[in-house]
Design goal:
This protein is mostly beta strands and 76 residues long. It has 1 helix and 6 strands. It has a domain of 45 residues. A hairpin with a 3-residue loop joins strand 3 and strand 4.
């Protein structure tokens, strides 16, 4: 009888890495525009959440990421 080959070592277990919540990267350059001494907002504010929350602009709608409020663009 031939000698049996040694058993392979078990694979090392991977440690579970806890990942935090995924945060969207909002560039502040896109949210505001500076004209002289005035700062103007370029994105609309959510009517439900108030002026502190920006709405995301998509090609067919604007939506709030906090409360889910959505306004669809009118088709012409």
């Amino acid at each position: 009888m031939a000698a049996a080959a040694p058993a392979a070592a078990p694979a090392a277990k991977k440690k579970d890495v806890k990942k935090g919540p995924v945060k969207a990267k909002l560039s502040k350059k896109d949210a505001y525009k500076v004209n002289g001494n005035k700062v103007e907002r370029t994105k609309p504010a959510c009517p439900k959440c108030g002026p502190g929350i920006f709405m995301a602009t998509h090609k067919d709608r604007v939506s709030c990421g906090k409360c889910g409020y959505t306004e669809f663009n009118k088709k012409e």
